């Protein structure tokens, strides 16, 4: 996933709490970056961006294709100073940052890190699974991000089926409500998984997002799915995903992102 050329330039942490993290920040607020993509034209709408992948996720979505990023710790992580170093070397128009995961809001040091980006005038897009509405509210209230992409994995009443852990429905409902307050530019997005979704599920998803700005549907890719059962399951056909989109469009503008 991360560029080998890119990571070879980077200072890597040998352990989660390496000497590169000042002692007063250790434990409380060092962020763990499990990977980096130096140039992306598709992850931040309208902006070329550097993408960082936070290490660690609180959920276990059966179709997750980033399983390497789920454990809290990893052998090699990237020092956050390298991220700012790379961005500093770029023209201003290319100094944009996408913070994705794993799950970024799980990181104790997220706010501190985003404040550093704000001080440097770096627009940030945050990708989140919605498991931590308090953190989402804070980053919006403190004006630390320019754009949020929130995963909406399925109808809320069966959310445990999609996030792989119990007690996740209330969190996603609250996170959706925060974005529906319209204080920030945002999008909802759903990965369409034929083994887990029926087209009618997109009626429920759309209704839940009624009044929202935009829902993007993206096809499930079986190759690296977390659950072996799903690695053998079919990916959505264009016809299947079209029908799903039609159901969702009754409630919210919906686009398929192939
Ligand atoms: S797909 Fe699910 S398990 Fe994987 S990183 Fe996202 S929220 Fe976590």
TrEMBL record:
Q: Which SUPFAM superfamilies does the record associate with it?
A: Radical SAM enzymes (SSF102114)
Record flagged with keyword Repeat: no
Q: What is the lineage of its organism?
A: Bacteria, Pseudomonadati, Verrucomicrobiota, Opitutia, Puniceicoccales
Q: Which residue intervals are annotated with compositional bias (Basic residues) in the record?
A: 1-14
**Domain of life where this protein originates:** Bacteria
Annotated ranges, domain Radical SAM core = 43-258
Q: What is this protein called?
A: Anaerobic ribonucleoside-triphosphate reductase activating protein
Which molecular-function annotations from GO does this UniProt entry contain? 4 iron, 4 sulfur cluster binding; catalytic activity; metal ion binding
Keywords attached to this entry: 4Fe-4S, Iron, Iron-sulfur, Metal-binding, S-adenosyl-L-methionine
Gene3D superfamilies per the UniProt record, alphabetical: Aldolase class I
ATP-binding as UniProt keyword = no
The prosthetic group or cofactor this protein requires is:
[4Fe-4S] cluster
**Which organism does this record belong to?**
Rubellicoccus peritrichatus
Note down the stretches annotated as region Disordered.
1-20
InterPro entries from the UniProt entry: Aldolase_TIM, NrdG2, Organic_radical-activating, rSAM, rSAM_sf
